[in-house]
Design goal:
It is built from 11 helices and 2 strands, in the order H-H-H-H-H-H-H-H-H-E-E-H-H. With about 260 residues, it is mainly α. The protein has 2 domains: about 160 residues, Rhomboid-like (Rhomboid-like fold); about 70 residues, no CATH class. It has a two-stranded antiparallel ribbon. A hairpin with a 6-residue loop joins strand 1 and strand 2. The two termini are about 20 Å apart. Keywords: Hydrolase, Membrane, Transmembrane, Transmembrane helix. It is found in: Membrane. Pfam families: Rhomboid (PF01694). One of its GO terms (molecular function) is serine-type endopeptidase activity.
Length: about 260
């Protein structure tokens, strides 16, 4: 497998691994600078649309993305050529970041409206619903406060604390960055499925062969399901994955129309 690695895939693997090691052991502040923040955040910088895709949360995050690139990238590079593979990776990665940023703005505005509605009418039941919807941001102790607030709905101290809690949620939501090359990788996956739909891939779990078009189709359906579910405890940027799939599909569809573009 490693003997067949192609130049662009090799360079992307090397860059991602080196950046991960540097950010993990030499300059940890790189994670704060190069991750992609909400464009309304004070930490946002335009270059993050590019740099976020070279940052990873941990080893397994890096491993899963680079393993996918290693499995699907070389054949695509041989078929499309180095320039088109690199274009596919970069356009899907940057494009996924841009689309995800738009989605993040929508989510933040939706949450902000709910917080303003609570401040206009401090209702313990409404506060409890907001806590449940955003429980990924909370320690379990917050539910003790919810119970106390429910028993003392008119207490100014409880109302003030509830408002501070919701403002904290807004700040955390605004300043929670995204990292990883998953958007770019999903572009690679959909390109492989469109160009080699009937290629048999052997899964490890469960151990069985499956055609590329079915595997990527299942990934797409799973991603759409998670975007719609929007679980508060799920820290995976499923919308970025879906964006990478869509952008990759559009690119390959246009390339396929011009057969002379393959070399």
């Amino acid at each position: 497998m490693f003997r067949n690695i192609t130049p662009v895939v090799q360079n992307l693997l090397l860059i991602n691994v080196v950046v991960f090691l540097v950010a993990s052991f030499v300059f940890p502040t790189l994670n704060n600078w190069f991750a992609l923040y909400n464009i309304q955040s004070e930490h946002f910088k335009p270059f993050q649309f590019l740099t976020y895709m070279f940052m990873h949360a941990d080893f397994w995050h890096l491993f899963s993305n680079m393993f996918g690139l290693l499995i699907f990238g070389p054949l695509l590079e041989q078929f499309l050529g180095p320039k088109k593979l690199f274009t596919l990776w970069m356009v899907c990665g940057v494009g996924a970041g841009v689309l995800y940023s738009g989605y993040s703005i929508y989510q933040y505005k939706n949450l902000e409206d709910k917080v303003l509605a609570f401040e206009a009418n401090p209702d313990p039941e409404y506060f409890n619903r907001l806590v449940i919807e955003n429980r990924g941001y909370f320690a379990p102790e917050v539910f003790d406060f919810v119970d106390n607030f429910s028993r003392n709905p008119e207490d100014p101290a409880y109302i003030e604390r509830a408002e501070r809690t919701l403002q904290t949620i807004l700040k955390l939501n605004l300043n929670s960055p995204m990292v990883g090359a998953s958007g770019a990788l999903f572009g690679i996956l959909v390109a492989f499925a469109m160009l080699f739909p009937n290629t048999q891939l052997f899964l490890l779990f469960p151990p069985m062969p499956v055609k590329a078009k079915y595997l990527v189709g299942a990934y797409a359906l799973y991603t759409i399901y998670n975007v719609m579910l929007n679980s508060p405890t799920d820290n995976v940027a499923h919308f970025a994955h879906l964006s990478g799939l869509v952008i990759g599909a559009i690119l390959v569809y246009n390339w396929k129309k011009d057969r002379n573009s393959f070399y």
